[in-house]
Amino acid sequence: CETCSKEEAKYRCPRCMKYSCSLLCVKKHKLTQSCNGVRDKTAFVSINEFTDLNLLSDYRFLEDVGRTADAAARRCTMHSPATKRLLYCLRNKARGCNIELKTLPVGFTKRRENSTTFNSMENKFYWHLKLIFPHCHAEYTLKGVPDDKTLADILKPYIDPVESDPIVCQRLKIYTASPQSDVQILMKIENRNRNSVRYNKLDASRSLLDNLKGKVIIEYPTLFVVLKTLKNDMVILGQDGSEPTQSTGSESSSLSSMEEGEIRDSS
């Protein structure tokens, strides 16, 4: 025992690694050494001494940090009157534009991701927007998209053969190689049964705000960019949406699994 030096040691302090023989010596050691007895999870361990137990300890420490940070963020957001006022204002402004904007409870991924704001000076929405290109299994997130920007201008950096980024262009080459008239922009219709998923067809020449009017949006818009020819060949689709046609090809199953339903033009 490193406290009394009389008895055989039975305990070892997780903090300073001092040996003690009894509860009395443990308490005395904590008092004299100003030791709290709590293991230092961030103490340096050389690579030669690093074991599986140290690895497990580090992993658990990171998990604890993640849980603590997440809990703090939830409490801050959940109980912040300012946040509630901003959400109410955002929904109210959307309602004034004939858009039914719904927000999810704190903790949902889309709630954390959403960066949509409303500029009162400009009387304009700046949307958080997600673009999904199912034929290439690609998706991109845009922030601060003004509501008066046309969908064609929004898509230019992605599928325009001249203005798109070379790396993005290469990834979406099936879109950039197709004529612009073949591109369709669809948005899922919310509040429908899971077995009757439908999509609205949007007008690329009109603004984002005009396309969102009269629709239900959960947190932020998610747009699916598809090609007419591939869509007709690959997606289970009937003329009236009730009688599905046969789909073929390897890409058909991948597109269907990504969208989990039928794609039907609103017209």
UniProtKB/TrEMBL annotation:
Residues 238-267 are annotated as: Disordered. Keywords: Isopeptide bond, Metal-binding, Phosphoprotein, Ribosome biogenesis, Ubl conjugation, Zinc, Zinc-finger. GO terms for molecular function: zinc ion binding. GO terms for cellular component: nucleus; pre-snoRNP complex. Residues 1-35 form the HIT-type domain. One of its GO terms (biological process) is maturation of LSU-rRNA from tricistronic rRNA transcript (SSU-rRNA, 5.8S rRNA, LSU-rRNA). The keyword Flavoprotein does not apply. It comes from the Eukaryota. Residues 241-258 have a biased composition (Low complexity). Pfam families: BCD1, zf-HIT. SUPFAM superfamilies: HIT/MYND zinc finger-like (SSF144232). InterPro entries: BCD1, BCD1_alpha/beta, Znf_HIT. PANTHER family: BOX C_D SNORNA PROTEIN 1, BOX C_D SNORNA PROTEIN 1-RELATED. Belongs to the BCD1 family. Interacts with FBL, SNU13, NOP58, NUFIP1, RUVBL1, RUVBL2 and TAF9. Interacts (via HIT-type zinc finger) with the RUVBL1/RUVBL2 complex in the presence of ADP. Required for box C/D snoRNAs accumulation involved in snoRNA processing, snoRNA transport to the nucleolus and ribosome biogenesis. This is Box C/D snoRNA protein 1. It comes from Campylorhamphus procurvoides. The lineage of its organism: Eukaryota, Metazoa, Chordata, Craniata, Vertebrata. The gene is Znhit6.
